[in-house]
Write a structure and sequence with these properties.
Elements lengths: L1 H16 L2 E7 L2 E6 L6 E5 L5 E5 L3 E6 L3 E7 L6 E7 L14 E4 L1
Antiparallel strand pairs: 1-2, 2-3, 3-4, 5-6, 6-7, 7-8
Amino acid sequence: MIKTLCIILLLTLHLSACDSGLKWSEGEYEVHWIDTLHNRTLVRKIDSTSSIGRVRAEVIAVGSNDKFVVAKQKDPHSNSVSYFVINREKDGDFFKPGRNYRRTIF
């Protein structure tokens, strides 16, 4: 009986330790986080269960209009700030993130 209760308690703690959420969403683009808010990433949705990463953590701000999605990223190691501008019309399932649209501000 005690062994069963310990197993149930451990499973409950294990499952509750993994948390995630949605911080921002517009059209095909979303900012997700897993475990902590410092893991916020910008992704492009492919379908209801799949997405492609566009900007790695830590995304600290995001905005958009009909043509562009703009994300502000802070590097956790150097505290430098980068801006990513994604052209919605040119973005696709096989577009490589981080190429031709990253600018670092010191």
